[in-house]
Every structure is written in structure tokens, then in C-alpha cells.
Amino acid sequence: MDVIIRTVRLEDAEALQEMRTRPRCVWGTLQLPTLTVERVRNQIAEMPETVHSFVAEVDGRAVGQISLHLGRGRSAHCGQIGMMVHDDDQGRGIDVDRSERDRSE
Questions:
Q1: H helices then E strands: how many in the chain?
Q2: Domains with residue ranges and CATH for the chain
Q3: How confident is the model at residue 33 (pLDDT cuts 50, 70, 90)?
Q4: Cystine design at 53: which of 1, 8, 59, 86 (Cβ 3.0–4.6 Å)?
């Protein structure tokens, strides 16, 4: 399986919306499974410069996302990481570090 890591694009909105509303991605979060594609598009389009977001792509489809949210001002030394993998792709090694996976192949 070839995993491509790249920056998030507006075209990813539909795949990210589906991913973010799946039961296993929502479980354990404060997120509600009522997110619309339009809202995800707006979040991508209006992403602040302190957020760096990437998707994992397999066979032309976004199957995972990881984002780094940097703090501002006195919190500039802090950050938060958010990560998710589509329910159907969990357990396939999408979230494994590429260098670790390359060593095991």
C-alpha cells in the first residue's frame, strides 16, 4: 500500500467530512457527527497560518488527516496535534511513521 502524505486541499472536503462523521472517528471526542461538507470546505479555506494540516492519501483518496495547531503569543511554544484515520482504513498502518514502516518492509 502506497501512502502519500501531502497538504490538505479544498478538494479533500468531502472525504474529510465523511471521515469526521464516522462512528470510530467521533467516539471519544466532543465532536458531533453533524458536520457538513460546506463547513469543512470553509475550515480548509480559512485555515489560519498557525495550523499545518496534512492528509494521508491512498489510491487517490484521503484516508487520514493530521494537523498541528500552534499557539500564539505567550503560548507560541505550545501546540496541539489532531489525528484521525477513516474507520474503514484503521488497522492498516496508515498512522505508522513512514521510516518505521520502510524499515520493516
A1: 4, 4
A2: 4-104 (3.40.630.30)
A3: confident
A4: 8
